Amino acid sequence: MPAAGTVTSQQQKTTSRRPAGTLYRGREGMWSWVLHRITGVAIFFFLLVHILDTALVRVSPEAYNTVIGTYQTPIMGLGEVALVGAIVFHAFNGIRIILIDFWNAKYSKIMFYVVVGLWVLTMLAFVPRHLINVFSH
Amino acid sequence: MSTATIDQPAAPEAIESFTVTLIIRRFDPEVDDEPRWQDFDVEMFPTDRILDALHKIKWEQDGSLSFRRSCAHGVCGSDAMRINGRNRLACKTLIKDLDVTKPVYVEAIKGLPLEKDLIVDMEPFFESFKEVQPFLMASSKPADGKERIQTVAQRARFDDTTKCILCAACTSSCPVFWTDGQYFGPAAIVNAHRFIFDSRDENAAVRLDILNDKEGVWRCRTTFNCTEACPRGIQVTQAIAEVKQAIMRGKP
Question: Which end of chain B is more exposed for a tag (fewer CB within 10 A), N or C?
């Protein structure tokens, strides 16, 4: 049935074409997953750059020092806040996901707010100390 | 339903009706290249359901509006759709539970090929369902030739997942399923769970093997959209987690 075939190809296009449907209104679980994915990808790119600049020490220690020296700016200092924020969320939420899979899925929402709470506490402890360092040098 | 309101003229006066705006995502494959939003105003009572609003539109305003419904009482699972951005059964969503000061958005469920208006092609969904072999497999004859006895605890083990009505609200709420249509999806795993943990069934190992696949349970990212969407209140994410653990143990 060639006619049916053409209809099918058109239908498949329509699931992804504009105007799109509304954004799915998921709750804590969906947004924690979105954040986990974003922080995960961000950390991956950091690690990539980090391995490259660390590997520079094998090329020449002077080049390594120059590159590391360029990181000592306030902008990089703020970037480090974002990096630590991403890693801390990813770490705590990772523990939450492990507990959901291996322990109990019932407490996922409570655990999400525990993750957010722990993240705020960690950042409260880290950010002031870190920014004093960044802006006093 | 209409005769009931005519028989009791006093009742409609007592209950206040109001105008609800529904914005429906329409698509007619013979005319449209892509879906479009269309709004309708309908007089509704707080106790009416979204399905009643759709009926009113179809019967009184625009007969071309297409949607599936059969029992209209939350049992057949035909009318799953996205209402205000969340997968719900139209027949179980009361007007009074929605914020009617704003328009109500109604669209087809996501991730399955759109056929017309609120109707999607359910075939890929049922294919995954079939693949997990959702039927009792037992080689032995039941004792005294009548029935297979089960303790209350054995029956309770899989009680939650027997409630599934295959409406696809869970599978089409899953972000993994939207981007990867090959994923079995929550509904298929729920129905596998129902037999994996059934003491009378002998083929749990086969189903665990089917789901221990790249597109099986390990695709689950525990977003809990399925659990939130299920009109029968099945703890879907919990069921998937139990299947994951069963695969690692190698037995139910």
Answer: N
